[in-house]
Every structure is written in C-alpha cells, then in structure tokens.
Amino acid sequence: MASWRRSLPSLPLFGLLSSFILLLLQSSHHVARAANIVDNAHHSLIRKPTSSPNVLVFQEAPSFRNGEACGSPEISPIHISMTLDANYLRGTMAAVLSILQHSMCPENFEFHFLCSRFEPEVFSSINATFPYLRYKVYRFDSNRVRRKISKSIRQALDQPLNYARIYLADMLPIHVNRVIYLDSDLVVVDDIAELWEVNLEGKVLAAPEYCHANFTKYFTDLFWSDPSLAKTFEGRNPCYFNTGVMVVDIEKWRKGGYTQKVEEWMAIQKLKRIYHLGSLPPFLLILAGNIKAVDHRWNQHGLGGDNLEGKCRSLHPGPISLLHWSGKGKPWLRLDSRKPCTVDHLWAPYDLYRPSTHTLDE
Ligand SMILES: *[C@@H]1O[C@H](CO)[C@@H](O)[C@H](O)[C@H]1NC(C)=O
Ligand SMILES: *[C@@H]1O[C@H](CO)[C@@H](O)[C@H](O)[C@H]1NC(C)=O
C-alpha cells in the first residue's frame, strides 16, 4: 500500500504515462475482449443467467490496516457518506477501495450509506467485497423529496437519491458532527484525512471553489431578470462549487436550518424555472461565496463530459487528489462499451467488478 501511495503524487505524469501505455496495449486488449464476447454468446446459448443482471459480482478487496501513528477509530473516526444503490454499485465499490487504499489509517473510516430501497444483495455485496468495512446504512425516504423535484436537463440528475445529501443532518446520528459527502462516480488518489482535517473557519461547508467560472449560466434568464430573485447574490462574490465532494459541519447545518432553505428554493424552482441542473443550484443559491474553499485538487470534476453529450475531456493541469466523473459519461459504462475516454483508464485500476462470465472462462 505504502509503495503504491508513493508512486502516485505526480498524478498528471502518472496519468499521461499510463494512458500512453494503455493506448499501446489497447489493440491486443481488444482482441482478447472480442474473444470473450464470442465466448459469452456461446454461454448464453447453453445456460440462462441464473440471477438478475443487476446483481453484480465483485472481487474481495485486500484488508487495509492502520499505520502505527493512527489513533483508534473511536477516538479519531473519519465519517464518509455516500449514496448506495444497485445501479451505481460498481462506482461506489471503486470509490471505497480508492479511499482505503490511499489512507494511512484505513481502519478509522466509518461509512454512512444512504439508500432509498432495501436491496439485500447490495449489502451482501458490500460485506463480501469489504469484509472489514465499518459502515451503517440509512434509509432515505424518497417520498420526502419526490414531489419537490422538477425536471432537469439530464434524467439521471432527477433521481430522488441525488437529493439525499440535503437530508444528511436529519439522517446521521447525533454524534457525527462532521461528514465528507462523496458522489459515487469518483476515486480518491490521496489520503482523504487531509481533506477531513480542513479548518472550516466557522463555515457550514468546505469544497473547492471556482470563482472564474461564468456563474450566470447556472441560472435562467427568468432568475436574473426578476430583481427579487437576482438580489439573492447581493453582497456576495458567488463562486461555483460542485456538491459531489463536500465537507459538511452537520451541527451547523442542522442549527442553521439549511435543509429547509434548500427545500424552499426547490419549491420556487417548481413554480418558475430558475435553473437547469438538479440538486446543485439550490446549494449555490444559499452558500455560493460563503463556503470554506479547499484546494482544487480535491475535486477534478467533469471527467464524465458535459451533461448533454458526455464528450471526452482531458485533465486540467495541476496536482490531483480526487478524480470525479461528473457529467453524462461514466467510466465503467464507457470501458464496457470499449469506447473509453483516456481519463477512464485512471478509474479502471479501482474497478472490483468481476463479471460472472469471466469466472466461467477462467
Ligand atoms: C452484512 O454484515 C453486517 C455486519 O456483519 C450484518 O449485520 C449484515 O446482516 C450483513 N448483511 C448481509 C445482507 O449479508
Ligand atoms: C456569462 O454567460 C452569460 C450567459 O451565458 C453571457 O451573457 C455573459 O456574457 C457571460 N459573461 C462572461 C464574462 O463571459
């Protein structure tokens, strides 16, 4: 584990090199995959799949152990919250693996998974893949938010579970007063303890902030032309931030009634269309310009491409601690389709998915 960590700090170089090598390897890889496809077709002729295609089979992750300088998980826990559902399970597994693999104190994590449905096969998958993982599961009642959601530009953004992050303060136990919320389409390539320890300086939330992004485009003309709405940002220097990676002071969130504030903006969105995206704009309306900014390396987002087409994108320059495939394209789908983007090869090493047909082949 330690040697792995040390080989990574200059990720852009690593990325370039590995993409180059992978490009070289691709042609032979394609031949192997093509052979597999033929095989699969053969199998499907002789045996019907015994389980539903949603049930994924994963390889067991190694057990990651604490380094010597780590306090006990009781004394210095790191709370991570993510959503969990069968559709994104492959992404979640890769994210969890990446977090543990790069951590000096992997036993100090406590994962808080938010699910809208009880899917026993998802939990048994987690148990089998990470037998040592300390985690809790919380039921998110999607009825709580379903009627409040208005259609965005991408259907995937309208899933109720995307909105679960708004209710973290209601769902997590009272002793959890700080949490890192993470999307499921990302991998961490550095010790996330560093992000965890950020000094929030009295703010409710920390995330990378982008003050040069054109903020205007996140809201509609109707929003900007209505003085009572447009004045929302008065006296602030609003900067974009991405809600896929956030450190949240849960106690401050609860005391400040932020859940209700988000719901109020969602109600306004339902009446007049004031933005195009899903759960993100209400966060901007309430908090943009008033968060604790952390280094950009903690969320290299947009690797999934834009929301409409999901075109390939390359990495932004600078150090990277977290890679995030926000946008339409997801690395596991693009890799499976055998039309991956170059950046998708950076996700592949964390993929624990083992299609059952492969076990048959071996
Ligand atoms: C997963 O493991 C936990 C803790 O050992 C156990 O309580 C739970 O029943 C297991 N779930 C499944 C579906 O195997
Ligand atoms: C920002 O975007 C808006 C609308 O898309 C455009 O009208 C405006 O000129 C842009 N501003 C800058 C500084 O690029």
TrEMBL record:
Asked if the Swiss-Prot or TrEMBL record annotates the protein with the keyword Calcium, the reply is no
Q: Which Gene3D superfamilies does the entry link to?
A: Spore Coat Polysaccharide Biosynthesis Protein SpsA, Chain A (3.90.550.10)
Per its record, what are the GO molecular function terms?
glycosyltransferase activity
Q: Which UniProt keywords apply?
A: Glycoprotein, Glycosyltransferase, Membrane, Signal, Signal-anchor, Transferase, Transmembrane, Transmembrane helix
GO cellular component terms listed in the entry, alphabetical order: Golgi apparatus
Domain of life according to the entry: Eukaryota
Q: Which Enzyme Commission number(s) are listed?
A: 2.4.1.-
**Topology term for the membrane:** Single-pass type II membrane protein
- Where in or outside the cell? Endomembrane system
Q: What is its main location?
A: membrane
Question: Is Acetylation set as a keyword in this record?
Answer: no
Q: Pathway, per UniProt?
A: Glycan metabolism; pectin biosynthesis
Class in the EC hierarchy, top level: transferase
State the signal peptide span: 1-34
Family, per the entry? Belongs to the glycosyltransferase 8 family.
Q: What is this protein called?
A: Hexosyltransferase
